Amino acid sequence: MSIGEPANGSGAPHPPAGRPGRRRRPPAELILVVVITYVAGFVAIGVGILFILLRYVADNGLLGGESTVTLIGAIVILLGFFILAMASALARGKHYARVLTTIAMAVEFLLAVVALIIDPSAFWFELALMAVTVLITLVLWFGRTGRYFTQISELDAAARRGPR
């Protein structure tokens, strides 16, 4: 291979960047959602670890005792790892990640509504949380991000069909 020769070894030039069959970079909105999702996953893992450490607090009877505290912490850690997996799949344009993230946002929205009913003193926090969940869901399904997921789904379907 000489200088300037393509690395694919065929001697043919690389396909142009604008070719329809190539994957595009994710839009900026999706990258922002992915970053927020990664942060949420790491925060959940940290909270789970701190929750497990609560078992060493002298008075944890209100939380159900040592084993319950450890179990809840482990579940929160697993949820954090699941969130990290969804962030990774979102970055790769996987449709199932968009669906599962939308379901998670709907659950988060409903939990914020319940928390608002139970404790109206956190009105602005819960309202901001509900707005963020709605915005993330809209970003995932509409605009450039929606078109990006559609393109990736079409490319994946074409790859499964194989060469023609």
Describe this structure in words.
This protein has helices at 28-53, 66-91, 95-118, 123-141, 143-161. The radius of gyration is 22 Å and the shape is elongated. Residues 11-18 have low confidence and may be disordered. The protein is built from 5 helices and no strands. The two termini are 31 Å apart. By secondary structure, the protein is mostly helical. 70% of the residues lie in helices and 0% in strands. The longest helix is centred in the N-terminal third of the chain and has 26 residues, at 28-53.
Write the layout of secondary structure elements.
Layout lengths: L27 H26 L12 H26 L3 H24 L4 H19 L1 H19 L3
In summary, what is this structure?
With 164 residues, the chain is mainly α. The protein has helices spanning 28-53, 66-91, 95-118, 123-141, 143-161. The chain is built from five helices and no strands.
Describe the structure using short key phrases.
164 residues; mainly alpha; 5 helices; 70% helix; 0% strand
> Percent of residues in beta strands?
under 5%
Main sheet overview: none
Helix content: 55-70%
- The SSE order reads HHHHH
Q: Give the count of helical stretches.
A: 5
Structural class category: mainly alpha
